[in-house]
Amino acid sequence: MAIGKWTADTVDVPVELTFWGVRGSIPVPGGDTARWGGNSSCVEVRHGDLPPLVLDCGTGARALGVKLAREHARRVHVLLSHLHADHIFGFPFFMPLYAPGTQVRVGLPAYSEDEARERLGRYLNGSFHPVRQREMPALAGYLAVRPGRVLELDGWKVTPHRLNHPGGSMGYRVEADGLAIAYVTDTAPFAQPGEGLLAGEEPQPAERRMLAFLQGCQVVVYDTMFDHDAYLEKMTWGHSYPEYALALARAAGVDRLVLFHHEPDASDQELDERSARFGHETAPRVRLAREGETITV
Predict the structure, then answer these.
(1) The dihedral sign for the CA sequence 278, 284, 289, 292
(2) Residues 6+ apart with CB under 8 A from 61
(3) How crowded is residue 118: how many other Cβ atoms within 10 Å of its Cβ?
(4) H-helix or E-strand containing 114?
(5) 159 in the Ramachandran plot: left (φ > 0), alpha (ψ -120 to 50) or beta?
(6) Angstrom distance (rounded) from CA 235 to CA 252
(7) Pairing mode, if any, of strands 75-79 and 103-109?
(8) What is d(CA 163, CA 143) in angstroms, rounded to the nearest whole number?
(9) Angle at which helices 242-252 and 268-278 cross, to 10°
(10) Are 123 and 136 in contact (CB under 8 A)?
(11) Contact yes or no for 44/53 (Cβ under 8 A)
(12) What CA–CA distance (Å, rounded) separates 235 from 233?
């Protein structure tokens, strides 16, 4: 689906990912999370003069929205992985939605634009939040996001991929001028313990589909909310762990893996320890998402 046209000079310009929220389930700002960040999921993707692309609108979207409003962004694309509260907390506080002369288009998993509008409208209905959709003057329209159906968004090419999460979730492969990143949250592994890639076996069918989705990406941002033991206790919660993300990224030939959607109880010290444990990896290189940090591709 093509949305408008955008002419920009992006030759030899990098793609930049900035993390405005890196936590899962619930925002936890405070002294114990000050260094790695406590806001819930929100990632800004930029490339030259293309319109900003926003992946999820957790509480990190509030500060991002202030920045975009100050930049006088005239077109903004927002893609929501799913509608669990930690991924949309910040949407009504996203300042570009109220800026005159701005157009914000929102994509989310749905079969039609009407369904997309209705699904988000269940949250913006005056009960869960006082602001309704009709009170957002810059909300220019909705996109129905379906697995495998490519979106062409003003120079961005976005491929959605179905993930493994209660209620459903969508991962996004984002490409521009030969550069590719993937945003994969929220999702459990695509194989049971003792099966597939991490067991040293042939990948399961769902793993093969994910590998094809990730191949050729320079950077993959992946849900690693749990450690392995916590995952085994909470297998139905729809989140993964670093060893599994690393196995997928390695098999797909990914350059860099970013561990994301940190567990809300994980303190800065615990994330320091996780960073030290996985930071020595070289194939792929591994780092943890840190709020306020920008990665250049």
Answers:
(1) positive
(2) 20, 21, 42, 54, 89, 90, 91, 93, 94
(3) 13
(4) helix 113-121
(5) beta
(6) 24
(7) parallel
(8) 19
(9) 40
(10) no
(11) yes
(12) 6
Q: How many CB atoms lie within 10 A of CB 128?
A: 11
* Residue 106 DSSP one-character state: E
Short-list 90, 94, 98, CA closest to 29: 90
Query: Going by C-beta distance under 8 Å and a sequence separation of 6 or more, which residues neighbour residue 133?
Result: 117, 120, 121, 124, 139
Architecture of domain 13-296: 4-Layer Sandwich (3.60)
Q: Which amino acid is at 96?
A: P
C-alpha to C-alpha distance for 185 and 169, rounded to whole angstroms: 7
Tokens matching residue 156:
């961005």
CB atoms < 10 A from the CB of 101, how many? 8
Assess contact for 169 and 187: CB atoms under 8 A.
yes
Q: Give 61's Cβ-side CA count (13 Å radius).
A: 27
State the amino acid at position 161 in one-letter form.
Answer: H
Burial class of residue 140, CB neighbours in 10 A (0-12, 13-18, 19+)? middle
Partners of residue 220 on adjacent β-strands: 182, 257
What does pTM read for this prediction?
A: 0.94
Q: Structural domain boundaries of the chain?
A: 13-296
Q: What is the pLDDT along the chain (297 residues), one digit of tens a residue?
A: 333 333 334 447 899 999 999 999 999 999 999 999 999 999 999 999 999 999 999 999 999 999 999 999 999 999 999 999 999 999 999 999 999 899 999 999 999 999 999 999 999 888 888 888 888 999 989 999 999 999 999 999 999 999 999 999 999 999 999 999 999 999 999 999 999 999 999 999 999 999 999 999 999 999 999 999 999 999 999 999 999 999 999 999 999 999 999 999 999 999 999 999 999 999 999 999 999 999 999
Instruction: Enumerate helices (H) and strands (E) in the chain, giving the number of each.
Output: 6, 15
